[in-house]
Amino acid sequence: MANIQLQYFPYRLNFKYPFRISHTQRTGTDNVYLFLHYENHTAWGECVFIPYYTETLETFQQLITSVILPDHTDAFDPFIASLKKQFPNSYFCIAAVDIALHNLRSSISTTSIGHHYGIFDVPKESSFTIGISSDQEMETKFNDNPSMSYYKLKVTESEINRIISTFQSLTDKPYTIDANQGFEDRNEALKWSYKLADLGVEYMEQPFHKDDFESHSWLKSRSPIPIMADESFQNYADLEKIVKHFDGINMKIMKCGGISEGVKCLKRAKEMELKTIIGCMSESSVVSNAAMQIAPLADWVDLDGPLLLTNDLFAAKKSDEELIYTLKQFQIQKP
After folding, report:
1. Taking 50 as the threshold, does the pLDDT of residue 1 lie above it?
2. Which CATH superfamily includes the segment(s) 5-113+316-328?
């Protein structure tokens, strides 16, 4: 394969509601779409720029202007690995390249991403995330999305009781808990782990600061439900440390640098007897659709990013020409 044409388009994804977790609140996410074109085949990739991570549009531009794409899509893992060595702090940006190449290979081979990895199961249903909200806002968010099979509640140590009580007043549907580093008191977290177990909650995610492995290890050894790593887990290299302190991981395509390493992480985690979530970072359908194809490898699925957005261009079937026109207009009109 030769002469793959490459274009990229900065964009901003806007949220339906302000998205609040324990340490920040956002109304949207800057991202970039990567477009590949080869003969009559096209493909899209995407990465997002989260404020509390270091990658930016400038980071992406530095990477993409130096990339020499492989001349085939039969086996591009070595190419992705070389990018990670060359740009060790740009896993989000590398994920966009990796996703685009996976989608291009699917277009050329007429084989899905999942089938390429021998994944033929139907994906599990995704949770729907409710960020930290007032009682009224929680009711609105639930009523706008009442048909989800289960929910993920963002909490803090000080607000977990109110959030759970409000949610239970709205529905008896199952839910999981994500503290996003929102706990400080070990005993309080332990107390809640028992309460959550009694309520049928399947796991508690990232209660303490990402660098506080000691507290997570302490809680793991005492908790009746799995304690899952999110912020403490970034990519494959972290697994050997994670297994000592957590019961499982939330693997996100952005953090680990794409589909290739995502599959590798999920398979290795299973070998290590770790529980697994496949999660998202408020990306659009480009990332969600790719990640969903490997979702059967995970115990739980949290790929609700597109449902949180007002302007997911890829939610409906559009031609490449329509998408590129819209993305270019965004650049013209953007202040």
Report:
1. no
2. Enolase-like, N-terminal domain (3.30.390.10)
